[in-house]
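queue> pop job 88
queue> type: inverse folding (structure -> sequence)
queue> payload:
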């Protein structure tokens, strides 16, 4: 059993039944000209966590965790994009419109790819999701159950939108969630701060929060004990 110094208390997990979920580290949110920028955001703060997420991925791979990458994406015919969502953003810069990285937030387009530094390895799960949460219309819950996954470590963007939605939905489905605070980011620093606080408040109402260093320490100590 791995024991991580987390908030509001120790987070315990077994690597064999744990997955790291890296949410939406795709060019649409991290590069200029994508969906994030189309919504009026400065994308530069999000790029700053790429090294931390890369370190987290390396750690998870080293310790044999299941690795899952998600991408927020829609079918080319927009059949999975409800009108209310399609109306987000400025006219001409909406989901499906042409941009510098291809059609915005559309499956298969260059902008929809995960940034090269964090590219999925063969055998890792890549989940295309039309919603903010990772369970809606993805079949992921069943796949996780079939794989015996009970605990989920969360990273990616943005903290208060797709990451928090996925974490809350995971909590409702019985998974134990840990948000890695330095491997997630928001376009709004105050929203990130508030999200970290609200996840861990009330005794860990929708999960727990820890730093990457605490996770690494816990995994390294467990490995030393084994050897
Ligand atoms: N706009 C924003 O903060 N986020 C999204 O639209 N999607 C994700 O968080 N991935």
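queue> result:
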């Amino acid at each position: 059993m791995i024991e991580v110094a987390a908030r509001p208390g120790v987070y315990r997990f077994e690597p064999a039944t744990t997955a790291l979920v890296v949410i939406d580290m795709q060019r649409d949110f991290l590069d200029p000209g994508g969906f994030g920028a189309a919504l009026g955001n400065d994308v530069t703060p999000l790029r700053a966590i790429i090294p931390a997420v890369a370190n987290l991925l390396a750690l998870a791979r080293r310790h044999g965790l299941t690795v899952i990458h998600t991408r927020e994406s829609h079918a080319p015919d927009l059949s999975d994009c409800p009108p209310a969502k399609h109306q987000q953003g400025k006219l001409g810069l909406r989901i499906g419109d042409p941009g510098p990285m291809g059609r915005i937030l559309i499956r298969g387009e260059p902008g929809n790819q995960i940034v090269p530094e964090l590219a999925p390895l063969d055998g890792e799960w890549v989940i295309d999701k039309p919603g903010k949460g990772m369970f809606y219309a993805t079949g992921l819950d069943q796949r996780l159950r079939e794989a015996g996954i009970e605990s989920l470590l969360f990273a990616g963007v943005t903290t208060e939108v797709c990451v928090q939605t996925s974490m809350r939905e995971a909590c409702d489905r019985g998974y134990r969630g840990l948000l890695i605070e330095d491997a997630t980011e928001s376009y709004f620093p105050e929203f990130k701060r508030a999200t970290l606080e609200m996840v861990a408040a009330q005794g860990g109402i929708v999960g727990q929060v820890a730093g990457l260093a605490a996770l690494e320490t816990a995994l390294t100590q467990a490995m030393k004990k084994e050897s």
